[in-house]
Amino acid sequence: MNYEELLTKMALEDERFIVMTAENRALVRNMPKTLGSRFIDTGITEQTMVGMAAGLASRGRIPVIHALAPFLTMRAYEFIRTDVGIANLPVKLSGFIPGFLSDGNGPTHQAIEDVAIMRGIPGMEVYAPADEDDLVKMLPDVWLSPSPAYVRINHKPSSYTHAPYVPGKAETISEGKDITILVYGFLFENALKAKELLEKEGLSVGLINLRSLKPIDEEAIIKAVLNSELIVTVEDHFLTGGLYSILAELLLSKKLTANVLPLSLQDKWFKPALLNHVLEYEGFTPEKIAAKIKNQLQSTSIK
Question: What single DSSP character describes residue 157?
Fold first, then answer.
């Protein structure tokens, strides 16, 4: 089942669902003929869409709204914060092509600060599925939650079969004594391959697919910090406000510290190109992730 099939099924079973888009139909192309008046395309008007969705949610509906991630999270930010966030309404925001998935688009179309600004809204939940399988496993819980939620949509297919989704819990792929990699979203697959490369060199490598960034699975992260020599955060997001910041906030609140290697975008937008070229240039291929981790281990004389 893909994203559109899942949303169609849930909307046909529950008349509270309203599907909306700001002229971004890539995920919901076949739904107008199925849902009729419960499908609304507002045109390229993200603010209007969010305002309408808040009104519908205040009347008991569950609006699932779609737009390109940068325009949904930034152009409509005040409307999300004020209309949805302050009222704590169950509007579900589907951000398309977040992070590196916007590949050839320039900085205007890159959402690499979206996690930071969305998690800053009180009550807003933030999700980042690893691939399509992960996406469809978590969305029923996300959509039926009474809270507002932002989802970094990732519908890329993968050969990996994820564990069933448990709300608020990360997916621990493996535990490692030398290294634990914390990752979310699209870079999961490359982190998984990097783990395999490091294991071939005799290292004990853990991997945690966080799935939910807010709420965050504190228990899984603390366990990894206490049992691994090195923690690595991998994300297609600015360093500021993303997973590295979340980890720092959590450790400080627990009066803990750790040896941490952050792999993220360092205060600059990425160079647009075909996706494989972006990953190569920015250093996020499995080989480059593994090499950076090895270098960090050697520089800290852990292994």
Answer: -
Residue 236 dihedral angles phi and psi, to the nearest 5° = -95, 70
For residue 301, what pLDDT band results from cuts at 50, 70 and 90? low
Residue 29: exposed, middle, or buried by beta-carbon count in 10 A (0-12, 13-18, 19+)? exposed
d(CA 33, CA 4): 13
- The per-residue pLDDT for range 108-143, each reduced to its tens digit, is 999 999 999 999 999 999 999 999 999 999 999 999
| pTM assigned to the model | 0.96
For 48-62, what is each residue's pLDDT tens digit? 999 999 999 999 999
Q: Residue 6 is encoded by which pair of tokens?
A: 């899942």
Contacts of 8 (CB under 8 A, 6+ apart): 30, 31, 34, 35
DSSP type of residue 123: T
CB atoms within 10 A of CB 192: 19
First to last CA, the chain: 44
Confidence (pLDDT) at 299: 87
What is the spatial distance between Cα 21 and Cα 282, in angstroms, rounded to a whole number?
Answer: 32
Q: Which contiguous run of DSSP H or E holds residue 143?
A: helix 132-144
Contacts of residue 196, Cβ cutoff 8 Å, sequence gap at least 6: 286
- How does strand 125-127 pair with strand 92-96? unpaired
Q: Residue type for 199, please? A: E
- What whole-number percentage of the chain has pLDDT above 90? 96
Q: How far apart are CA 255 and CA 49, in angstroms?
A: 43
How far, in Å, CA of 32 to CA of 47, rounded? 21
pLDDT at 303 over 80: no
Give the lowest-confidence range in 25-29, 115-119, 253-257.
25-29
Hey, is 283 helix, strand or coil? coil
